[in-house]
Write a structure and sequence with these properties.
Blueprint lengths: L18 E12 L2 E12 L3 E5 L6 H8 L12 E3 L2 E2 L4 H7 E4 L11 H11 L4 H14 L15 H12 L6 E5 L7 H16 L3 E5 L3 H7 L2 E6 L2 E6 L1 H5 L6 E5 L3 H10 L4 E2 L5 E5 L4 H13 L6 E5 L3 H9 L14
């Protein structure tokens, strides 16, 4: 079982930009059942941060606390969202954020346009400004044609797009997306991914919780795995994949003599699944690849092909959240 991993200094990746969200020692219990046992977060502005974890791990609890819907537990440290202290300035925090929960906030009895205008009223926009914002967002989310149809007639993907469009009426700089693509078909999921990428390109920070590991792999700048009330590991997708054994470099040769020389120079290598190929255990890092290529150069051997194979996020997730996994003091990812 790999050790939990988190950056421990501001020099680590992800700390070059100012934090959109930061939390120190975030705690929460329900009765005598602890859910969060002192987690730390530092989420740079203009990035996608994905929080993964098994059902019941506390992902939604984290979202509710950071979005002011739930109070943090006793003993929690300072929590800041968009630079504002959650404890002393919750109203300003609410003005800076948008929240799309697991369950749609769309009212199916009224039209998509009426849902949008209702949100504009809630944000105290003038009638003229509300209609302008509504028209712009409906066009942006490809909902103009369906705007005057009851939302109950929308497909799941359309309702999700309308849900996010409603979230954007107040022009939030931080958006919490709590499992936004659950239940959507593959085409609708990919459409939602494009929307999320577009938000980030506009400078919005996205805090994403998801059950789909490929979604986190595709979208997130940084990923944290929540397990047993602790952050078991945090890093980029590639950094997390290097935590799990099974990574290797596949070398391909066309010259049998070169293949034999490489096998001699690399005694840890095993024959690959094709003839004249070798598999060399590796975490895929630049340092490991440099060392491997240096050994081949020293032996006067040149491979005809080289590919790096790393475990996927499914492997990482299962390793970090298995019953054998026990949270302990995080360490820094080697870079």
């Amino acid at each position: 079982m790999p050790s939990p991993v988190m950056p421990t200094s501001n020099e680590g990746a992800g700390h070059a930009r100012p934090a959109a969200i930061s939390a120190a020692g975030l705690r929460k219990s329900y009765g005598d059942k602890p859910v969060l046992e002192g987690i730390d977060l530092h989420i740079p502005a203009g990035t996608v941060f994905a929080l993964l974890g098994p059902n019941g791990a506390g992902k939604t609890t984290v979202v509710k606390i950071l979005s002011t819907l739930l109070s943090p537990g006793p003993g929690s440290g300072e929590i800041r969202v968009d630079g504002h202290d959650l404890a002393t300035d919750p109203q300003t925090v609410r003005a800076a954020i948008g929240v799309t929960g697991q369950f749609s906030a769309v009212d199916g009895l009224i039209t998509g346009e009426e849902n949008m205008l209702l949100m504009a009223d809630l944000h105290h926009l003038s009638r003229r400004e509300g209609r302008r914002v509504t028209a712009d967002l409906l066009a942006r989310f490809d909902l103009t044609t369906a705007a005057r149809k009851p939302a109950a007639t929308y497909s799941g993907g359309m309702r999700r797009r309308l849900d996010i469009a409603m979230t954007l009426v107040g022009n939030p700089r931080i958006i919490f997306l709590d499992e936004p693509t659950t239940g959507l078909d593959p085409r609708s999921r990919h459409s939602m991914w494009q929307i999320i990428r577009g938000l980030v390109s506009d400078g919005v920070t996205v805090f994403l919780t998801t059950q789909y590991l490929d979604e986190a792999d595709e979208l997130a700048d940084r990923i944290a795995v929540l397990n047993s009330g602790h952050i078991a590991a945090e890093g980029t997708a590639d950094e997390l994949k290097r935590l799990v054994p099974g990574g290797h470099v596949r070398l391909r040769f066309t010259d049998p003599a070169a293949y034999r020389s490489a096998a001699t120079a690399l005694p840890e290598a095993a024959p690959g699944d094709e003839s004249l190929t070798l598999q060399v255990p590796s975490d895929g890092s630049q340092r490991a690849l440099g060392s491997l290529l240096g050994r081949l150069d020293a032996a006067g051997v040149e491979a005809d092909g080289l590919t790096v194979h790393l475990p996927d996020l499914d492997d990482v997730f299962f390793a970090l959240t298995s019953s054998a996994a026990r949270p302990h003091q995080p360490e820094e990812i080697s870079r």
